[in-house]
């Protein structure tokens, strides 16, 4: 199988998905001596553009895991703006140390429906969007080495192929997909944080960076304390704020954050397929 280029197609609000997808892509590029083209669809304008791939390109498609699934706000883009044209593809998901549940099989099936043929898949770990404690600093050096190993595995797997297999790569998950993970309190009642938004401390100097990095375009550029749309709790405005001025004080959000930090202290490992 002869490929002419690699396409990196990813959503990465805090940079963890980008880091892994770029690392895998770099390994493949060196092995095959082909160029890499990036399509970062994190910001709203990028999700308005169509991406058309061909059979002589490999697509590495990466998304974070939100509540055990592909973020639902990305589904319109993945369903209508991607065209595989028979291209081989590798779905990659990043989860925050809890679990990726059905996210990988969901992304795989979305790519198959868009005309790609999935030849591999991977679930990596990144620092949780809610926390600086849960999977802190990941992906780290060990994760990057695993990304290198995965690239080498893909090179080895495809070396003898004359054509891309049409059977989707087997990955964990359930079909039909399970509902999005729902946090619950000690009495088993759902904790609903869908409408929760960060607050802004007096340390904010109105630099506007939070508005620039919001994947939903939901922070008013003229008044960064005002929201004009939904908040998906991606962590971009909080983790990228140079003044550490944005924060949550919602009791349900903080309960869920602490529950995750206390319950998932183990080092979750990447999984390759």
What does this structure look like?
- This protein is α/β, with parallel strands linked by helices and 273 residues long.
- The chain has two domains: 5-178, 3-Layer(aba) Sandwich (Rossmann fold), CATH 3.40.50.360; 199-261, Alpha-Beta Plaits (2-Layer Sandwich).
- 27% of the residues lie in helices and 16% in strands.
- It has seven helices and eleven strands.
- The strands form three sheets. Strands 1, 2, 4, 6, 7, 8 and 11 form a seven-stranded mixed sheet that branches. A two-stranded parallel sheet has the order 3-5.
- Strand 6, helix 3 and strand 7 (117-118) form a beta-alpha-beta unit.
- Helix 1 packs across helix 4 (141-158).
- The protein is globular and about 60 Å long.
- The chain starts with a strand and ends with a strand.
- The model has no long low-confidence stretch (mean pLDDT 97).
Q: Report mean pLDDT, rounded to a whole number.
A: 97
Helix content: 25-40%
Share of β-strand residues: 15-25%
C-alpha Rg, in Å?
A: 19 Å
Shape verdict: globular
- Give the terminus-to-terminus CA distance: 19 Å
State the CATH architecture of the largest domain.
3-Layer(aba) Sandwich
Q: What's the number of helices?
A: 7
